[in-house]
Each structure stands twice: as C-alpha cells, then as structure tokens.
Amino acid sequence: MPLETTLEAGNSITNRRREFERDGFLLLKGFASPEECAGLQRRMQELIAAWNPATEQQTVFVTDQKQQIKEQGSSDYFLDSADRIHFFLEKGATEDSKLKSDVAKNRSLNKVGHGLHVADRAFKEYSHSDKVTNLVQELGWKDPVLPQSMYIFKQPSIGGEVTSHQDSTFLHTTPRPTCLGLWLALDPATLENGCIWARPGSHTEPIRRVFVRNPARFEKGDMSAPQMIFDDLSKGEQAWEWEGKMPDQFAPPSKGLFEKGFKPLECEAGDLVVIHGQVDHLSLANTSDKPRDTFQLHLVEGPSQGITWSPRNWLQYPAGKTFPSLSGDGQGPEKKRKALSSNCVCFCDLCCCCSCCCCCCYCCCCCCCCCCCSVAPVSKKFVAWHDENLDSIAMRSSC
C-alpha cells in the first residue's frame, strides 16, 4: 500500500517527499554532523565496555529464515530487548553458540537493540531531535511513535549479509502499514563493506509476511513450539523467490541484484537513508577490513491517527508501557504551532503582512505565534525556522 499523500491546507509536497513517494526510499547527504556520528560511536563503545558477555545470555543474530526462528527464539533474551539494551553476537564470532576466545567483544557483535532510544540518553537525544521530527513530518507522518532502535555493526571480514526483507514484516500496524526506517551511516557504507541495496518502487507492493509471536506457544501454552514464526501473507501472489533469502548471483559483482532491480545506496558517514516499511531491501556481507556502523531508528504512526500496533508483533513493550512519541512530549511541530496560536495574542497585521517575517516575530513575546494564522501570508523559510525553534519560542511567549 503506498503512503498516503493527503496534506492539510497550507502545506506543500517537497521535492524530496516526491522522490520518497516515487522510489520508497531517500538518501539524504550530511544529515548528521561528524561530531554527532563520533558521539554515537563513542557512546556505543562505552556501552560495550560495560557489557559482560559471561553474565548475559549469548544470542546470535541472523536473518536467514530458518536460523532466525531458531536463534531469536532460543530464549527470552530477544523478546525482552524491546525496551532495553541487549547485545547480539555475529555468527562468525561464535563457536558452539559461545563467543570465541580470540575475538574481542567489541568485534563480536552483530547489533545492539532494541531500546536504545528509550534506555540511553545519547541515542534518545538523536532520536527525538528536531531534524528527525521535522523530516518525518515533511514525509507525511502526523503523530509517530518509536517502537524500535538498533545499532548495527557489520563487522570487518565477518559481518554477515542481511537477506531481502520489508521492515513492515517485523513492525506491523493496522489497518494500514505505517513503518518508516531512518538508517544513519556512522561509517562510510560501500559495495565492499555492505551498503544497503533497495528496489525502487517496491513500496507499492503488499507486505509478504509478518514475524509474529507464535500463538501455539503464547496462546495455547505449547512450550515446545518456537517462540516466533513467519506468517505468510502473500498466498502465492507477488511472492518473490528471494523473500527472506537472496536473489541468485547476489555475490559481487552482484549481477543478480541488478537484474532484479536492486540499486546500491553507497553512503558517507552522516548520510541518512530513509526507508519505507514496504521497500524490498538487503545488504551483503562485509568482505573488507573496514567497519560499517549504523544507527537505525524505526517509527510507526501513532494511535491518534487511528493506527494500532499489531498485538501479534514479536516486539511488545511490558504491560502498561507505551512507545515514546517521536516529539518526546506527544506533540509534533503541527500540534505545538496550533497550541501556541491558541494561547497568545496575534499581531499578524503588524508583523506578518509581508513575506519576510523577520525577527520581530521572535522578539515580541506574544507575536511569536503569528506565523500560524491564515490572516496574512507567511514565508516557508520562516515557518521552517519556527518549527525548529518551537521550544525556545514557547518559553518566550509565556513571559
């Protein structure tokens, strides 16, 4: 199902939103600064230093369908990671499901997840930053929440492939899919170290399967049944033979990937790949001596938009705990703007009658909300500036 494109009056569809709706993905250069990338990497190394593999469950993370059900369902460690920070090993770093003695722990990991945006301040600050919030709103999400975050390593030489998949398989909402992935490159991502490959236009295809908690175990109490299963939704329609696997001839020079319509998305550190939840994408193994760290954030539309998180999803927060709002306070830029405009005196005829809307709107305690009114035209540049500075404007408007 394509992303809905209905916008409220007064808004416009940007060029990058058009590109996103056409292809199902978007590559944004320089989204995060070198300092931001280094800060997230430094914080992850601190978390790894504090991690003791000997005292925690050692779980391998793989994406091959049969192995995925086995490895992720071998204990509660995977399920319990929803709102916590858990460490998952790379298959090539283990022997008999245990960490090899000659592999350093900071080189043994496949990923850390799935609650970094909840449980760690540095990752939480990035996840709720203005630029993330504004980008998501620009692309059409109204009141999104954050169910999942992951730090993916793709270790040099041993970092494994990620098979073809749609993110909505793992993060499913009803009555329509609303998953959006924000894939931040913390290192350069190249053909050699495992950049993303995506198939343009595949977001218009239906979800082919969902990864769910097995009702035989969780509803009927059969403890011998696997914890998770894949539920096939395709019923033979538009099912690709490489779903959960890889197309033939995928290894470099990757002739098979090009023939099936996949496109490599090479990135520099700080670039962001935005991925629609139904886009078919994958990545190859890291055969180089270079790392390929990424921080990946997934969001879905919130309940205020009539969207329900599927109770069948593998990922569920503890009873009584809800997914955090993207904006951090349950109010996106649009809600905040309306709230400000309803609580202060507007002087649109004085300071908004021209399109420049200069500093008088910011300096006057009560005039800061005039950009919300429809009495006079407002420059798009000012509205963008206004949204980025809502919190500080709100403080001034209460003087």
Automatic annotation (TrEMBL):
<dbReference type="Pfam" id="PF05721">
    <property type="entry name" value="PhyH"/>
</dbReference>
<keyword id="KW-0479">Metal-binding</keyword>
<dbReference type="GO" id="GO:0046872">
    <property type="term" value="F:metal ion binding"/>
</dbReference>
<keyword id="KW-0408">Iron</keyword>
<dbReference type="InterPro" id="IPR008775">
    <property type="entry name" value="Phytyl_CoA_dOase-like"/>
</dbReference>
<protein>
    <recommendedName>
        <fullName>Phytanoyl-CoA dioxygenase</fullName>
    </recommendedName>
</protein>
